[in-house]
Amino acid sequence: MSASLFINGQWLEGRGHMFQSHNPATGEVIWSGASADAEQVDAAVAAARTAAPHWSNLSFEQRCEQVRRYAEQLTTHKEELARTIAEETGKPFWETQTEAAAMIGKIDISIKAAAERTGERSSDMAGAKAVLRHKPHGVVAVFGPYNFPGHLPNGHIVPALIAGNTVILKPSEMTPKVAELMVQLWEKSGLPTGVINLVQGEKETGIALAAHDGLDGLFFTGSSRTGHLLHEQFAGHPGKILALEMGGNNPLIIDQISDIKAAVHETIQSAYITSGQRCTCARRLFVPNNDTGDQFLNELKEAVALIKVGGQFDEPAPFMGSLISEAAADGMIAAQQRLLDIGAKSLLTIEKIKPGTGLITPGLIDVSAVEVLPDEEYFGPLLQVIRYTDLDDAIRQANATQYGLSAGFFSDNAERFDYFYRRIRAGIVNWNKQLTGASSAAPFGGIGASGNHRASAYYAADYCAYPVAGIEAEKLSLPESLSPGLTLN
Ligand SMILES: NC(=O)c1ccc[n+]([C@@H]2O[C@H](COP(=O)([O-])OP(=O)(O)OC[C@H]3O[C@@H](n4cnc5c(N)ncnc54)[C@H](O)[C@@H]3O)[C@@H](O)[C@H]2O)c1
Ligand SMILES: O=CCC[C@H](NC(=O)CCC(=O)O)C(=O)O
């Protein structure tokens, strides 16, 4: 059993109930510990509050130095980090190595973003200076999802600390081991006591933390369902900052294409990478009802059937690993069945590869005949195909979702992309490129049920600090002329 919590610089055992994490490709237990109870959540918030004045009073450069020391730890331990992420999520090792690399890359990008978007500026005005500076919010909670248990919480934590906030991390209950390692690396980097705290646990721990009066903000990445609950919980607290990064039901439209093989490749990278467990994954594929559409779909079906699925460390490496759990795999098979029940036609059926694991084959399903398609995010390797004859109708259907995270258009025709771009509603809009693999050097976020206009990645700096505008002069002075009606003797 692990001393699973890190509060005020101490590793502690939780006093809540026990929980475990598994290697989803084998079912083996790889971590067990106890969750934080409400008192321990309280202690974590108190530790972060106590640490806040010292941390926020350090200079920007001093905080950056500290965060760079964390980057050194990440670099030294990148292999261990990638292995741990692979073991706990089921993602292939080649892929988790890219996650570890993204975590390291996040440091310099966040420093640059903070300086550019929230740094200090001043300009001269009559007898004074107009000054803009930024201050941290104070104590913030970071909630992470399981699909990128390192990179995505890291994408909130690093900019939050650079801005001068102190943090309480509540990772996904599916990935406590990765969180533990990440916080150990912060500890090794010499971060002052209380600046980062870790509370592990399931939903109850999340509820206790999100409801805590001592928070000044909450940065969340996870499902739209949980994000909506948090939004309701934060209603009536206008002074607390809430950043929500949630799911999507992302459309990808195939238009006029000449390179079918490239379109097939980019579609696979859009829909099946990480076994479909990325928020940006394509979920609905619009294919024209013509010969090119038929040929594209046949080649796509052939290539998807050939996708290698396997264990994280298999050689040769698989493209798709296990889903996060057997329950998630069963959920995808159930979602597929619900679509079949309402008139969908399977082109490639998801099948379980090994009972007791999250290993499943990829699915492709034609939902063109379904009258009312559920607007749901199926968080796994199931791509829904919709055949279309009229581009305007395809764009209308693409927009017929409560979500608005990513959207794509494959076409050789720039004018038609422009036409699509002007009409589509999403925070990420790609042309002839996969929907996944967004850059940390750009803002990242969605609209509608996908987010609340607090884009993360490069723009995370914006929600980590608030602007303070001032007019400053070194001495008091009288103006050259007084306002009408004023007399000073
Ligand atoms: N937009 C993005 O940047 C982005 C990135 C990755 C994942 N996601 C989305 O995340 C989802 C998958 O992640 P997940 O299943 O881990 O998400 P989740 O919503 O189940 O969990 C996210 C976090 O919230 C906590 N939580 C759950 N219920 C809670 C409650 N009632 N109160 C407080 N906290 C609670 C969890 O313990 C976890 O730490 C998908 O929908 C995916 O699209 C979005
Ligand atoms: O699952 C959701 C994240 C998907 C991932 N997005 C990013 O990495 C955004 C960049 C960042 O946060 O630094 C993707 O697009 O694949």
Automatic annotation (TrEMBL):
GO terms for molecular function: succinylglutamate-semialdehyde dehydrogenase activity. Pathway: Amino-acid degradation; L-arginine degradation via AST pathway; L-glutamate and succinate from L-arginine: step 4/5. GO terms for biological process: L-arginine catabolic process to L-glutamate; L-arginine catabolic process to succinate. It comes from the Bacteria. SUPFAM superfamilies: ALDH-like (SSF53720). The active site is at E245, C279. Residues 11-462 form the Aldehyde dehydrogenase domain. Belongs to the aldehyde dehydrogenase family. AstD subfamily. Catalyzes the NAD-dependent reduction of succinylglutamate semialdehyde into succinylglutamate. This is N-succinylglutamate 5-semialdehyde dehydrogenase. The gene is astD.
